[in-house]
Design a protein that fits this description.
The chain is of the alpha+beta class. It is built from six helices and eleven strands.
Length: about 240
């Protein structure tokens, strides 16, 4: 790997509390990144997202995790969230995870926090939300771009802390030579930044922090009263 940079941030938006959490670490040619968007309010969502990040960021510390290991980490987070739930306060969270080590990558997600993979000037892959709106896309009722304004966009079908805890795990990917960009983000971010804009800003950026900065400028011009917390982690790698 010739170049590697990563950067993340989280912002309260125009809410009273930030229930998003994230982590990003770079060490000896390896990046591990996690974002999570807590659901439930009254502090429960923030606790849940924090648990998810803590459990998932430890996955891959000694190598690129296998699918079974990733599933165990998601299960551990799910079980801890269930144990911490008190007084009927809902503690649930979405999560997206990425590990890039050397010339390989693996990622996983649950809910509607997303991961985008850009390669050599195009969108190569992206996660599909576990939501009512994504089902509408698959049924041909709306386009993927229309998810942002769909009336049931906030109805998430799979989460950590819920009855249906089944993350999607992407098979281990050997990264082709060239330039790769990965973006993990909560719905409060991708609601305001379009896929093609992510790519435009990536192509102009010299590092992950610049990429995030350009996208945040777009977001800042568009947020509305009561807008959600927004969180993102960017990873740029040249193989």
């Amino acid at each position: 790997m010739r170049k590697l940079s990563a950067f993340g941030y989280s912002h309260i938006g125009r809410r009273g509390e930030n229930e998003d959490s994230y982590s990003v670490s770079v060490e000896e040619g390896c990046v591990i990144a996690v974002v999570a968007d807590g659901l439930g309010g009254h502090g429960g969502g923030g606790q849940a997202s924090g648990i998810a990040v803590r459990c998932l960021k430890a996955c891959g510390g000694s190598g690129l995790p296998e699918e079974a290991t990733l599933l165990q980490c998601f299960q551990k987070a799910n079980e801890e969230i269930a144990r911490r739930r008190k007084n009927q306060i809902e503690m649930k969270t979405t999560a997206a995870y990425l590990c890039v080590r050397g010339r390989e990558a693996v990622w996983a997600h649950i809910g509607d926090s997303r991961l985008y993979h850009f390669y050599e000037g195009r969108l190569a892959d992206y996660t599909r939300d576990h939501s009512i709106s994504q089902l509408a896309v698959e049924l041909g009722e709306i386009s993927r771009d229309e998810i942002r304004n769909h009336k049931e966009r906030s109805r998430v079908l799979r989460v950590l802390g819920g009855e249906d805890m089944e993350p999607d795990i992407h098979p281990r990917l050997e990264l082709a030579p060239g330039f790769h960009g990965f973006l993990l983000c909560t719905d409060g971010f991708w609601e305001y930044v379009l896929d093609e804009e992510m790519l435009v800003d990536l192509q102009k950026a010299a590092c992950a922090e610049e990429w995030i900065g350009s996208m945040r400028l777009r977001l800042g011009r568009r947020v509305q009263e009561g807008s959600d917390n927004h969180t993102a982690v960017a990873v740029m790698a040249e193989i």
